[in-house]
Amino acid sequence: MNTTWLLTGLIALVAAPVLGGLLAGFDRILTARMQGRVGPPLFQPFYDVFKLFEKRGVSVSHFQNFYIVCFVLFTAFATGLFFAGQDLLLVVFALTAGGVFLVLGAFSPNSPYSTIGAERELLQMLAYEPMLLIAVMGLYLVAGTAIGPTPAAPAVLDTGKATTILACPPGDTNRLSASNQAASVSSAPVPASNTVASNSTVAAGCGATPCCQEAGLPACGTPASKTRAQADRNFKVATILHNARQGGMGWRMLLNLSGIFLGFLFILTIKLRKSPFDLSTSHHGHQEVVKGLTTEFSGKTLAWIEIGHWYENILLMGFVWLFFSGLHPAVAAALVAAVYFLEILVDNASARLKWQTMVKAAWIVTLVLGVSNLLFLFYFNR
Amino acid sequence: MSFFKKSPWLLHYDASSCNGCDIEVLACLTPVYDVERFGIVNTGNPKHADILVITGSVNEPTREVILNLYNQMPHPKVVVAVGVCAATGGIFRDTYNVLGGVDTVLPVDVYVPGCAARPEAIIDGVVKALGILETKAAALKAGAAEPAAVEGSK
Amino acid sequence: MELNLQVILALMALPMGTAILLAILPFDGLRRVLVWVSGLTIAALSIYGAWAMRGTGGKTTFFQFDPAYAESFFLWGGIVLAAVMLILCRRITKREWWIPVLVVVQEAVLVWLEAGHRLPAVKNTIAFDGFTSIMTAIIGVVGSLICIYALGYMKDYHHHHAEMKDRRRSFFFTLFLFLSAMFGVVFANNLSWMYFFWEITTLCSFLLIGYSREEQATRNAYRAMGLNALGGLGFVGAIAWLSVGPASVRGLDLMALTGMGALALLPACLLAFAGLAKAAQLPFSSWLLGAMVAPTPVSALLHSSTMVKAGVYLIVRFAPVFQGTVAGQALATIGAATFLITSLIAITQSNAKRVLAYSTIANLGLIVACAGIGTPEATWAAVLLIIFHAVSKGLLFLTVGTTEHKIGSRDIEDMEGLLVEKPFLAVAVLTGIAGMFLAPFGMLISKWACMKAFIDGNPLLAVLLAFGSAPTLFFWTKWMGKVVSIPAGKLRTDYRTAVEEKASLGVLAVLTAAVCILFPVVSWNFIEPYLRGAFAATGTVEQAILALNLSGSTLAIMLIMLGFIGLLPISVFLHPLQKPAARYLAGVNREADSAFTGALATQKLSTRNYYLSGFFSENVLTKGGIWVAIALLALLAAILWMQR
Question: Are residues A8 and A46 in the same domain?
């Protein structure tokens, strides 16, 4: 992680709640306009949170607020990681951990409404988690291989004796290793009892290297660059952004990921707690579970939950950005805004569904759009 | 600076109202009055609420519920009695099962008259309550002790 | 004899000796002293051995330990073992006729091979590398902790089951005999030796599952024996193939075999078949669920931390052989499908031990999937999973055992409020569960590595993993939720937890946290050297280790998140305590918050978790899973047939 990325991450830690609050303000105004109302001021979410900080809190158990501290810490950390260009998979794991802590916080008071909220939040996680992971994998397949100048890893490592290791990108390894192994075994029988395959030069060659050329790797004939290609295949946000821009992926990236993108939009509704999937808690008037997840929280703790959600929403918008990251930043920003607008529209145009419908729909969408897209990327687009 | 004025969250409870005042309370949320302009939200949860809005007169079963809700609201908090029944018991005040207005069980901060109370009056009442809420918040901030929970003994 | 060999032999002899003494000594007090002393010695010795022979730089330490009596020992030992099993089979029902048949067939083949001197000689009978180190440490440390725990537990057990005959002498005898055999399984480099120890573990498992002698326990014990014997058929088949099969692959040297590449694919698959049965993968999974009738230390030791690990140990050993083969992919798919299906079933279970059993099967499935992929990255993930799972699951089983004795139920719903009633047990449960799935703990890093290995190798596995992770999250979190929720109404009274139980639980909880912090050390000193040795022939190991990027930011991120968890207790002090308030119950709270009066009547307050049993059916999923797994096994056989 270089200084620029570190700085971006730190800035995001400070800026995300501000932007998240503004986003929530826009959301409320837009929602009001869609309902033929004027709506609150833009800064209303901030007023709410500041007021909550001024209020005294009450709690059923002394423990319930500590989980919320963890929820906010993990969610903020995930956001910071994301904008610091770090590993996307770890970001998702940290976000999930945050979610788990929020649920534990809701379980803690053992109140019927917050327990139902907690169970429903878990159902929401059950519904969206597969698609979230598949989205990460899709981005990895499309743009996870680092290109351009990055510090090279040592290509040849001596493990005591003269052992030269030549490498090839993983795709090749998988396709060719069976034949390689057969070849190497037949040419040189493996010593029955041994330490390292000492003194024997093992060359798991690449054979043909079409995939290197496809990926546009510079000087892909040399072992060093191949090694780098494998070592630099990663889930990092920085890598994805770098590839998308420098690799000139443009609309191609969105096109290749179209199924995964649509699937992600579907679960984004769950993740943003928008109708028809705002089962666990909601800002709106449905009240069959009172406030669900947040029923037993008040004062400062409730304010922190709100701030945690702001972090989460900004992180999710950043995630959406990744799909557009091959485009001009202005276009990408406009598209992200359009996605959020779409979510608000869906929110206002639909009624809450049952959890059964949510889980089924989300998993079917994930299977049909996400998985097929992933298989396509793996088998036809490498 | 206090933010109570900018973000009053309501809890609305129907103590035994004929639903006339309730409909007017809900009318405040509709596009015609749109109280969300002032940051007013109907929370439906005492733990999130700042203002307890009660419609209808108090009877024996709802007395306990009102106390329960009020005591679950975190400080500072105010009570608004909406409609003549909530204020005094209204035309039901002499019936065998009615205790009277909300002030027979709780300290009421604002009375909104009317049968049913008009939305404009309700909004006015809430705005008036906000002033009291701010005063209470300031007192708490200055170090005043939290008022004790209201006990249910008659 | 050199020191290291002495350590190895001591590790096998010490539990054996303890077992015999425990069988002879009739006194409770003596048994306690003996188990404590022997347990601690075994733990210390295993740590020493694991460190001394960790195989720096990929070196495997071989021992040519082949005393003259070995041949006749294993021949007669095998015959005696089979005879004991046949005698034990006297209580089978009509439908279980196939169990003794399997036992006889296996032993007949083996005797034919051994007595006819058809088994190829193995020079290096004992091998020790980084992976062996890890297994040794797990068996030694977790195993002895569980044995010590069993002292306190079994006393309570017989206190609770007064009608049952106290057969603790045979119980501890079997437990230590098992430890000895388990060490044998991981030390043996001669496959025929390993098979002998393998069968002893099956026998121990049978005896311990049937400990209570109740009808159900007996049936389940036979089921475990039968399915493991079925798997054993694969083992014997592999030994036979390697003895009298084609000359190019003749030889029972395990290490040599794993370095052979695709040539060893057929015996590797046969052994994997045995491994799948031992690790209770679909279609064999039912025996492990039945095994949950055994006393809890047995479930912890045999059925989660060690014995079932022998199955995946064998499969992971062959990872370099499976790498890049279609057969390996099929095997990996069995593992990944098992992971998904059993994770889904676990949602529907409220019996804590069954949840743990299903989750054990699921995690072993993940390990099998990694081994089937067989790349160095995947193998790295597999070994880490073995470590994290052994420690966390051991802890969880033991805690559930103690909790069951304290609250009289192993139902998760009854664990409500454990955090305030029995904070020590609650923290142990929470640590164990967090170790199983929550982000900053160990599983995070293995899941991360799995995901990377799967998406690089086979996207179908990655998809199965993605779908399987979600239910894992669901059933663990709701369990945690029950433990942390504050009970409505009166707290239950407590009574003393035995010192043995407390000590074991405490150490295991600390270990769970420690392996998370120290896993890089484990990786550098044990796993990476092992990978260097195992994958020397394929030549991709160095980049794999680089790709895991352990020195870099991944590690830092992990540690920061662990730091958050460490901060949690501090936040208790920073966060001002709020005024206590009653729950919101949409009515009038009654009876100190444990009931409420609503519009209709006064009702008791009770909350229950969702089990979604109308949504996911255990029966349907199990049946479907078994057929999917059988189809995949058939596919595997077909692939091997075509490539023969």
Answer: yes
Contact A362, A131 (CB under 8 A): yes
C160 SS3 class: helix
Q: Is residue A41 within 8 angstroms of chain B, CB to CB?
A: yes
Q: Is the pLDDT of residue C157 over 90?
A: no
Q: What is the mean pLDDT of chain A?
A: 78
For A235-273, what is each residue's pLDDT tens digit?
888 888 888 888 778 888 888 899 999 999 999 999 999
Measured between CB atoms, which of A104, A109, A195 is closest to C58?
A195
- Is C372 a residue whose pLDDT tops 90? yes
What residue ranges do the domains of chain C occupy? 3-574+605-643
Residue A203 confidence class, pLDDT cut points 50, 70, 90: very low
Pick from A36, A51, A291: CB nearest B45: A291
Please say which residue of A205, A231, A257 terminates a domain: A231
φ and ψ of A349, to 5 deg: -100, 0
Residue A220 predicted with pLDDT over 80: no
The reply to whether A332 and A216 lie within a common domain is: no
Q: In terms of CA atoms, which chain A residue is nearest residue C609?
A: A119
Inspect the interface and report whether the beta carbons of B48 and A291 lie closer than 8 Å: yes
With beta carbons under 8 A apart, name residues in chain B contacting A37. Answer: 31, 34, 36-37
Q: Is A288 on the interface with B (CB under 8 A)?
A: no
Least trusted range by pLDDT, from A182-196, C431-445, C545-559: A182-196
User: Smallest Cα–Cα separation from A48: which of A307, A293, A311?
Assistant: A307
Selected for mutation to probe chain B from A35, A49, A56 (highest B CB count within 10 Å) is A56
Query: Which tens digits make up the pLDDT trace of C253-291?
Result: 888 888 888 888 899 999 999 999 999 998 999 999 999
Alpha helices in chain A (DSSP H): 3-34, 44-54, 64-83, 88-107, 112-143, 170-187, 210-214, 223-231, 237-246, 250-256, 258-271, 299-324, 329-349, 355-365, 372-380
Chain C contact present for A316, CB below 8 A: no
For residues A269-298, average pLDDT = 84
Minimal Cβ distance to A50: which of B3, B9, B50: B3
* Helix A237-246 / helix A88-107 crossing angle, nearest 10 deg: 140
Residue A187 has pLDDT above 50, yes or no: no
**Range with the poorest average pLDDT among A77-81, A165-169, B122-126, C93-97:** A165-169
**Is residue A369 located within the same domain as residue A266?**
yes
In the block, residue with structure tokens 């950005």 = A321
Distance (Å, rounded) from C-alpha A70 to C-alpha A67? 5
| CA nearest to A102, candidates A90, A80, A120 | A120
| Helices C307-317, C265-278: crossing angle, 10 deg rounding | 160
Q: What angle do CA C437, A375, A327 make, to 5 degrees?
A: 90
Containing structural domain, residue A195: 170-231
Q: Which residues are registered as beta bridge partners of B9?
A: B41
Q: How many domains does chain A have?
A: 2
Looking at residue B15, its pLDDT comes to 92
Q: How many CB pairs under 8 A join A and C?
A: 298
Asked if the model's pLDDT at residue B50 lies above 90, the reply is yes
CB of C589 within 8 Å of a chain A CB? The answer is no
| Domain locations in chain B as residue ranges | 9-141
Asked if A340 and A247 sit in the same domain, the reply is yes
Separation between Cα atoms, residue C11 and residue B66, nearest integer Å: 71
Q: Looking at CA atoms only, how far is residue C575 from chain A in angstroms?
A: 8
Mean per-residue pLDDT over chain C, rounded: 87
Chain C contact present for A14, CB below 8 A: no
Record: fold of B9-141: Rossmann fold (3.40.50)
pLDDT at B1: 62
Average pLDDT over residues C106-124: 88
Selected for mutation to probe chain A from B13, B30, B45 (highest A CB count within 10 Å) is: B45
CA–CA dist A53, A51 (Å, integer): 5
